[in-house]
Amino acid sequence: MLAEQISIFIENKEGRLAEVTAILRDADVNIRALSLADTTDFGVLRLIVNDNEKAEQALRKEGFTVGRTKVLAVEVSDEPGGLNKVLDPLWMQNVNVEYMYAFANPQCKNAIMVFRFDDHDKALEILEKHQIKVITTEDISRL
Amino acid sequence: MPIFDIDFETMPREGLEAIQLRRLQTTIARVYATVPFYRQQFDNAGITPKDIQSLKDLQHIPFTVKQDLRDNYPYGMFAVPMEQVVRIHASSGTTGQPTVVGYTRRDVDTWANLMARSLAAAGAGAGDIIHNAFGYGLFTGGLGAHYGAERLGASVIPVSGGNTKRQITIMKDFKPTILCGTPSYILHLAEVADDMGVDFKDLFFKSGIFGAEPWTENMRQELESKLHLKAVDIYGLSEIIGPGVSIECKEEQNGLHVFEDHFIVEIIDPETGEVLPYGESGELVFTSLTKEAFPVIRYRTRDISSLNPTPCACGRTFVRMTKPAGRTDDMLIIRGVNVFPSQIESVLMENQTIRPHYQLEVDRKGNLDTLTVKVEINEGVFSDDIKSLQTMENKIAHDIKEMLGVTAKVRLVEPKTIQRSQGKAVRVIDKRNF
Fold this sequence. Notes:
By secondary structure, chain A is of the alpha+beta class. Chain A is 34% helix and 37% strand. Chain A has two domains: 3-69, VC0802-like, CATH 3.30.2130.10; 72-132, VC0802-like (2-Layer Sandwich). Chain A has helices at residues 16-26, 52-61, 82-92, 120-129, 137-142; strands spanning 3-11, 31-38, 42-49, 66-76, 97-104, 111-117, 134-135. Chain B has two domains: 1-325, ANL, N-terminal domain (Rossmann fold, 3-Layer(aba) Sandwich), CATH 3.40.50; 332-430, ANL, C-terminal domain (GMP Synthetase, Chain A, domain 3), CATH 3.30.300.30. Chain B has helices spanning 6-9, 13-34, 36-45, 66-71, 105-121, 140-152, 164-174, 183-195, 217-227, 341-351, 386-404, and strands at 85-90, 100-104, 129-132, 155-157, 178-181, 207-211, 230-237, 242-248, 256-258, 263-268, 282-288, 299-305, 307-308, 320-321, 332-334, 337-339, 358-365, 368-376, 409-413, 428-430. A nine-stranded mixed β-sheet of chain B has the order 4-3-5-6-7-8-9-14-13. A four-stranded mixed β-sheet of chain B has the order 19-18-17-20. Chain B is globular and about 75 Å long. The termini of chain B are far apart. Chain A: Residues 5-79 form the ACT domain.
């Protein structure tokens, strides 16, 4: 039920991000969403793409350190309180967000939020109980 | 494993010392007569060859240092006419002007014998196939190991350094059983093998003989687990003869037996020049006993070690020197603290799951020295969580402070951004201007 994100270690150097995106372009990989967490010296680029396998291979070949992480992707309705509906039941049961980022679902007006929780199993259980739709890697590659 | 030269290698100390004294007296008389530099040194110190009556008298003779060899570049230290020199090697010159050394036919023969002893101590024999990744050329590593392998009766593959992918194909196809090379190049080779999907478990090595640069116990563990072989350390300098001055035995892997029938080894205090007793750590000093073309008298190596005279389980009676812990000249002084790259390496090894590639950058901001330790990230320690990466940086910095008493900034860098070398690794970049 979880989606998969790839992450890349990049040094804080001019043009480095463009190099990554060029590699993905040349490998014909489409980026759905990304977030960059950085320090003064380095950053970790987290990506949701349409083809993890292809993206990972292309980046490895260019010498990047690539990791894969399970994340939870959730569709959030485009209205006041949409995100809160997802977060409320979670924090009340002590599930916390480590990081999150979002992208727009190209098929409708809704947003897709990508979460890394401290306890994914518990998060999944809670979301199911509240009938909140969880999006898988397959769903994402079909978007 | 059989000892190659059993009569000498297991000789009782008394007999050995008698041979040493006789050979020392001959060497001293010869250099006094044939090398103006040494005659001058002896005259300045008020010593004549007749004054050398016991091994202890060696202590009165002045040291020879690298600069003396440079001052006599290229052939000034040779003790025989060029008609008798059959081989010339030179040091890499990474720390300045190169130094040139020569060999007579008998020197080449002696060296082959010492390298055959070394290979045997590492477990090699006739029937073994030796993959010799030491560089061939002016550097003594390649040809030294080559002649030793032939003397031993093993089959040697003179693959030299470089062309790494081809080396791995050769390892798969030729099935070598003994691997020789500098440890940093061998680890690079292991990395490339990994990229090519080749597992050393499926290769045929039983021992590896690694040297020409200092390496740590941690690196031994890394080499042994990655390469599935027994890793032994070999020591030598072109100024003394090349590799084959001392070797670890496969049985104990605990200290390198110095071939004392050919060299006298001393440990001195690098500051005062005073000879230190067994067990104490200081600078290694060698005197050659049988070299003809290029004898050296009390040559200061700049390598730090100590001597252990206790008998070894392997049966060799030669004294053991500990693995060189670094060099007096790659010792960095950072805010008054002595730092050896090998110490930083130990800290890194303890913090990482796979062997890290690293480089030390020393700079001076205002009046303050700064030390930056660059470490390549690898997939074993990478995480998508910034906090855990920063925690790792801080933990390494903390451990360096704890172990060495020096503040360092640790910086994770992308894989393969630190320069790889075919020979010796460039571990230190010192940007300070003194």
